[in-house]
Amino acid sequence: MSHRTGKPALTGVAFLLGVSPSASFLDWLGVVGIVVLLGFAAGWLTVALGLAAKSPETGRLASVLPVMPPFFGERAVV
Fold it and tell me: CA angle 41-43-47, nearest 5°?
């Protein structure tokens, strides 16, 4: 199942089971804003690392390293 269908399905099941978050709409909007800004910052960080590299191979490796730890952390939890 892809992330596009899996996460909404999991959220729907959680609501069907009775999960009721206490945050307001503005709180959730703030969370979405922070996540978007962190993604934007991570994107520009990888661009800066790639531009600072001396060769294309080094640039590719430098832009992959900041992105990899979340994948390893996600697999450790599962």
Answer: 115
Greatest extent of the chain over all pairs of C-alpha atoms, in Å: 54
- Distance of alpha carbon 19 from alpha carbon 22, whole angstroms: 10
Task: In whole angstroms, give the CA distance from residue 10 to residue 13.
Answer: 5
**pLDDT tens track, the chain, 78 positions:** 566 788 888 888 988 998 888 889 999 899 999 989 988 998 898 888 888 888 888 888 887 777 777 777 666 655
Q: Other C-beta atoms within 10 Å of 73: how many?
A: 9
